[in-house]
Prior knowledge:
Blueprint: H1 3-13, E1 17-21, E2 23-24, E3 30-33, E4 39-42, H2 44-52, E5 60-64, H3 69-76, E6 81-84
Parallel strand pairs: 1-5, 5-6
Antiparallel strand pairs: 2-3, 3-4
Helix pairs in contact: 2-3
Amino acid sequence: VRPRDLLQAFNELKPHIVHCSGHGSNNAELVLEDENGNAKVVSDTALAALFQTAKDNVRLVLLNVCNSEVPARAVSQQVECTVGM
């Protein structure tokens, strides 16, 4: 999934729960895709900004990715309950 796909889904579906099952980098960044389908790391700052757009709806984010402590902490600044695994 690409970052803009998440943004579109947040706007259209207005989910209360978001479960991300994927990959995390060795530098504790979430790995998504770019426009060409290649791996793209997403910084914790960008991830927090992405979830800020959905903070009125999203109540729980589950990050089922390696090295997810830093991304989970970033998301927790915007969402009331975040779990990193």
